[in-house]
Amino acid sequence: MCRERQTMIFFYNMIFLFIPLVCQWMWDNLTCWQPAKIGQVIWMPCPELFEVMNEENDGEYMNNTLNCEFGKVSRNCTEDGWSEMFPHYVDVCLFNENGTSPDMYYVTVKALYTVGYSTSLVSLTTAMVILCRFRKLHCTRNFIHMNLFVSFILRAFSVFIKDGILYAEEESNHCFIHTVECKAVMVFFHYCVLSNYFWLFIEGLYLFTLLVETFFPEKRYFYWYTIIGWGTPTICVAVWAVLRAHFDNIGCWDINDNAAIWWVIKGPVLASIMINFILFIGIIIILVQKLQSPDIGGNESSIYLRLARSTLLLIPLFGIHYTVFAFTPEDISKRERLVFELGLGSFQGFVVAVLYCFLNGEVQSEIKRKWRSWTVNRYFAVDIKHRHPSLASSGVNGGTQLSILSKSSSQIRMSSLQAETPAT
């Protein structure tokens, strides 16, 4: 029986209680092996990643659990150090008919979200430059978009930093990563993720308030939005860090086995997702009522088309896709959850930047206006240089030339406006 075997192992280990430790902590890229004495046999369960690979073979998985040896691997501590593992992971942990390696599955997911976060990072940075560069785009709505973009940028950076600390080197000893720097990286990572969820929530709250309230003091509300978006995650992560330091100070804080402490971060995330989903439903109802108003006009097909387009635009902005796995237990559908939340979710920043900056009509108009202005100024600068080459040496400074160019471009715009205005 398994219980009798575990009892024997316990008394066997007690015999070597006072023998000096020879085999130190060891990380074999899948399992952390604890220190042991000469002669000790250490049994470890199969790594969690094999459970993901075996989800599709639940029947075979349950049949093999009846065997005491299933789901465990062992190493013997000898005078020369750790022995080879027996049995091997593939022999007792992997029950997959097609022979797919679990390492390749995680490598694929990691490559997918690395590409996604990199794409989002480049597009969001470009969008931030555009919104900051043009003063006519500075309004409360775009300020909220800019804060959301920053939260996506920070989230991408935190993911890259975390991966660089934990998984940069395959031979790094994950059993012994417990430095203050490593824990600080995990605190920063959770803060960035939580801030991103809260700014998605603020986007939904702002739009819902804009549709419901007639008189909307945007500047006063924006002050509270900023406090909620950056302040609330600070409080939650600070409480989580204090609790981890006092009650679960193990490793690099990258594993959350203590459910009560983990809910300090998981609870606000689920609350923001749930409230955003309710706001999303409320906004869709308001849009249906407004589109069906006689003042809007249009046939039934055009109304549904506009409603569908508005709904698709709001899904990435509100993060509605997170509701798919938000309220399911974490040990269910791990494969799908990883691909959906890490793989596809990493492209959310890119989609938001495209929809709310690059395809925004106001942004496109401002870029076109600046481009026309730059083209006209450049044309006159070249024209004046060729027609009056002595201007540069005749005492006319750069400021005078710029004023001449601005006046010329203004006169051209006025003449074009008069030409476009129909005679009355």
TrEMBL record:
GO molecular function: G protein-coupled peptide receptor activity; peptide hormone binding; vasoactive intestinal polypeptide receptor activity
Domain called G-protein coupled receptors family 2 profile: residue spans: 1-97, 109-360
Database matches in InterPro entries: GPCR_2 (IPR050332), GPCR_2-like_7TM (IPR017981), GPCR_2_extracell_dom_sf (IPR036445), GPCR_2_extracellular_dom (IPR001879), GPCR_2_PACAP_1_rcpt (IPR002285), GPCR_2_secretin-like (IPR000832), GPCR_2_secretin-like_CS (IPR017983)
Principal subcellular localization: membrane
Stretch forming the signal peptide: none
Transmembrane intervals: 9-27, 111-131, 143-161, 197-216, 223-243, 263-287, 307-327, 339-359
Stated name of the protein: Adenylate cyclase activating polypeptide 1b (pituitary) receptor type I
Organism in which the protein naturally occurs: Cyprinus carpio carpio
